[in-house]
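Morning!

This is the sequence you dropped in the shared folder:
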Amino acid sequence: MTETGKSWTFILAEDKESRGWWLKITDPEQLLEYHEKTDGARYEGVIRNRAEGRRLEDMTMEERIAATLEGNRNFLYEQAAVMIAGRSGGSFIDGIKGLQLETFQSELRNIREYGAVFMNRVGGHTFLLKYSQFVHRKEPIFPSYRREDIRVRRFEGGSHFYAFVGDMQVRKGDTLKWNTLEAARKAAEAVLEE
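The structure's back. C-alpha cells below.
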C-alpha cells in the first residue's frame, strides 16, 4: 500500500505501440511517493558514471550515436541533464534536479488534464492508454507472469470458470467468467501472449 493507503494499479496496455505493463497513477500524492521510491535507482547509473570519470563529453560521435540507437538510459539521462544544466548555467547535479522537476511537472499535467499518468518499467510516461486487464498491488513492483502462474477455478456449486494469472484475475472486456475450463485457460494464456 502507498503511504496514503492506496494500492498501486498496473494496467496491461492494449495499444500496439504501448503494449505491456504500465503503472497507473491518479493523484499527486501517489506520484510524489512513486518518485521517492524510484528516483534514486533511476539516476544512480548516470551519477556513478560521472563520479567514475565516464562523461558524455568524452564520448566519440560514434559512441553517442550507438548509445542513442540502443536507448541507453544512462546516456539519455546524462544528455538531458547536461542540456538542462547548460540552459541554467548550473552544475550536472542541478541538471539532474532540473530533469526530475521537468519530468514531475509533465506527469502532474497529465494527471490534471487526463485523470492519470501511466509509467513504464524504466520511468517513461504517457497518458490515455486503452486497457481492460489490470492488477492492484501493495508495492510498486511491475507484474511479470509466466505460464506456471495460470490457475483456473470453479467455485463450489458454480457452473462457471474463473481464470487467474498470479495475483491477477483475468478479464476480457467485461467478461470475468467462462463456461468451460478450456475457455478460461485460453483467456489466461492470451494475457501472457499480449
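Headline: Helices lie at 28-51, 61-70, 73-88, 92-114, 181-193.

More detail when I'm at my desk.
O.
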